[in-house]
Structure formats: structure tokens, C-alpha cells
Design a protein that fits this description.
The chain starts with a helix and ends with a helix. By secondary structure, the chain is an all-alpha fold. The protein contains six helices and no strands. The radius of gyration is 19 Å and the shape is elongated.
Length: 117
């Protein structure tokens, strides 16, 4: 149920920014309406993207672990954070970019949704 609601309410932030809706109930209603009929496709897409991100994160961790294995705890922590910043930045950008991209496609305005027309 939690994942279903997450998918249904994924469009709250883009609707807030793009449409200027301010009332929380209106935002929930708009997000629910936008994802109507597309919930399963959005859920599968998000699962696929986050599985790929998880694999990249784990590979980066496995590459970094031997590098910091012989360092002191504080140095290992600092080096790990510095080496993982690009991977963590990608995760943060996904949290903003995925809902915005999905919103743009769901709204259905070809002049705004298609950049390669």
C-alpha cells in the first residue's frame, strides 16, 4: 500500500511548481488524476531505475571498500564520502528529475514534453 501511494502521489511536487497549486487536497487530487491509468507503468519504471541505481551504488561501494580498508576509521570515512559523492549526487538528482520527467510526459503537452520534435 505504501509503494502504491508513493506512486500515486509522485506528482505532488511537479504540480506544485508547474501549475501553482497550493492547497494540499488539490495537490493530492491532481497527482492522483495525473497517474490514473499509468500507476503500474510508473511503478515498474521506478523499480527498474532504482534497481539499476542500487547496483551502481553497490559496485561503487565494492570498489571503494578495499581502498579504505587499511586506513584509520576517520580517514576511511572521509575518503569514502568523497569518493561516493558522485553516486550520491546521482541519487539526489533522481529524486528531483524522475518526478519532473514523469510529470512532463503525463501532462501531454507535445511542445513541452518532446524536446526532440
Amino acid at each position: 500500500p505504501g509503494f502504491y501511494l508513493m506512486v500515486k502521489f509522485q506528482m505532488i511536487a511537479p504540480a506544485l511548481v508547474a501549475e501553482g497549486l497550493r492547497h494540499p487536497i488539490d495537490l493530492l487530487r491532481r497527482s492522483w488524476m495525473l497517474t490514473k491509468g499509468y500507476s503500474l507503468m510508473i511503478a515498474l519504471f521506478l523499480i527498474a531505475v532504482y534497481v539499476v541505481y542500487f547496483i551502481v551504488y553497490m559496485l561503487a561501494s565494492m570498489i571503494i571498500a578495499p581502498i579504505v580498508g587499511s586506513m584509520s576509521a576517520t580517514t576511511a570515512f572521509i575518503v569514502t564520502i568523497l569518493l561516493m559523492i558522485p553516486v550520491l549526487a546521482i541519487g539526489a538528482l533522481m529524486g528531483v528529475g524522475l518526478p519532473a520527467g514523469i510529470y512532463r510526459d503525463l501532462v501531454g503537452q507535445p511542445d513541452r514534453a518532446e524536446i526532440f520534435s
